[in-house]
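=== RUN LOG ===
request id: a7f3
mode: sequence -> structure
chains: 1
length: 343
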Amino acid sequence: MFKKFRLLLYFCVAFVVIISLTICFIFFYPQSHFNQPHKTIYIRGGSVSKIIKDLEHEQVLKSPFLFKILYKVFFKNKKIKIGKYSLSNKMSNLKLLLTLIRGNKDIVKITINRLRTKTEFIKIISKNLNINADAFQAYLNSNDSLAKFNVDTISFFTMIIPNTYFFYWNTTMQTVLEKMYNYKEKFKSQVLSDSNFTQKHISFETLYILASIVEEESNIPEDKKKIASVYLNRLRIGMALQADPTVKFALQNFGLKRVLKEHLKYSSPFNTYLNSGLPIGPICTPSITTLNCVINAPQTNYLYFVSQPNFSGTHRFSDNYNEHLLYVRDYHRFLNNLKKNEN
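=== RESULT ===
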C-alpha cells in the first residue's frame, strides 16, 4: 500500500515538474532571432494569426506555435496593440507578448522646419506615421475638415509652428493636427501678451504671413528684423510689398535665383507686385526665430533693401528710392561680373 502511494506521489511530482518545465519553456523560450541587437517592427493590426505571420516574416518569432499557445492559453482576452516597437534580440515569449499587449511602443520624433507646400507636410507626416498620404491630402484640401482649427486650405500653415513634435506611430491625422494646433495656440497666447507685438497693431495671422516672407528673404537674424521693418512700413503707408519670395511662391519655382520682369507679371493672389498688401496666405512655415524677429523689428524709416554685392548674405537698406537704385546697380554689377567669370 505504502509502495503504491509512493509511486503515485512520484508520478504526481514528475507530472507537476514536467508541466512546470513546459510552462516555463513556453513562457521563457527565446523567440526573436534576428542578427542585430535591436529591431524596429510595425504592428499594423488584423487578426492574431495575421500578426503572428507578420512577426514570423520579420524574423521575430522562431516558434510561432509556442507564441500562439502562450497567447491562447493565458492572454486570449488581451489585444495586441498597433504601433511601432523596438525589440531586442532573443526576447522571451512572455516579454515579447507583454510588450505588444501593454503597448510599450516607440515614440516617433518629427521635426518640422521650413515647409513651402502642403505636399511637403503630408510627406513628412505620412513617412513617419501610419497615416495614408492620399487621405491626409483630401483632409487638408477640405475647408470643412479644417474649420475646427480656425483655418482654411489657404491659411492652413498659420496653425503650424516649426518645432519638434512627438507622436506614437499609429497617431491619427486628426490627433496630429490637434497637437500642432494646441501648440500654436499656446505660442499665440504668448505673442499676444508681448508688448513689442501689441505696439505693431497687427493680428497674429498678419505676423505669421509677414514672417513667412521674411523667412525666405534672409538667414541672418539682424537682417530679418530690418527687413520686417521695411515691410511693416510699407504696410502702414499702403505701399506695395513687392517681395520677390511671393513671386517665387506664385510660380512654385523655389529654385529661381533671379526674379526678372517677366516673372513679376505672373497673375496670382500671392504676387505682391500685382496685389497690394499681404499675400492671401503664408508662403512657408517661418521659424520661431523669424517670428520673433518680426515681433522685435525695430522702428525704422526703411522702405527698400537689396542684397550686398558680396557673398555675406546681408542687405543694404534705404529710406529713399534714389539711394536704393544705386545699391541695386551695385548688386546687378556684382551678378553680371560673376556671370562673366563663369563663362
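=== NOTES ===
The longest strand covers residues 38-43.
The first helix runs from residue 2 to 28.
=== END ===
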